[in-house]
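Sample 1 of the test manifest.
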Amino acid sequence: MGRAPCCDKNNVKRGPWSPEEDAKLKEFIEKYGTGGNWIALPQKAGLKRCGKSCRLRWLNYLRPNIKHGDFSDEEDRVICSLYASIGSRWSIIAAQLPGRTDNDIKNYWNTKLKKKLIMGFIPSSSNINQRTKSPNLLFPPTSTLQTTFQPQSQASISNLLRDSYLEPIPLVQPNFITWADHQKANGYFGNNFQTSQFQYDHHTNIEEVKELISSSSSNGNGCNNVGYWG
DNA sequence: AATTGTCGCAACCGCACGTTA
DNA sequence: TTAACGTGCGGTTGCGACAAT
């Protein structure tokens, strides 16, 4: 037996959101919250939309403090470094960039950043000019690169990242709090957990991990080299 | 000015996982 | 124990905007 669809596709509107729909959704959520049930929300809010569509629209566009527009060099560096250490875990990467959404970062990576990286326009953390304190280009573009650009395979992009971002950027506190709170209630890991040296699954004992982190985590920045996905 | 090609982004799709009854 | 359900995530697609010819 197949999985039941989340909504009746024949009776929901699809495609771009109108300003009126945006206003309805925003007003409803600001007034009542999501109620912890996205499926029921559209009906309550008077929208002919799928609950998943409402959720996506809210998270990626209507939510307060969403940042759109150009990414800074520092954001580029964070994305590249985290991609090098945890891969395409866009939601985790987004959690490290306030105001950015996973969808935004994913689109940015697929359309621009990957190319920038290949062309050598992303400064790496270990490639800062100590005299001027300004970033050097990771791989200064050569005439060859500029004139005969070839698409790179996923493997070669991975190699580029690995070679350029040997020092992973630590995830910031909020993720860790979320993780800790979650684990306090459960006593084990929901899915996978990874530091720069260790990887765990949901069978791993929490005390064991805490001990490993405390004994091995200091990287001189007062942070742990911790990657977490859940 | 018209046509064609490319790019960027919003939105959709399907799957995996956690929760609940 | 297990099936149904809700949520979140990553991959993919569709389409409008813009550039090139």
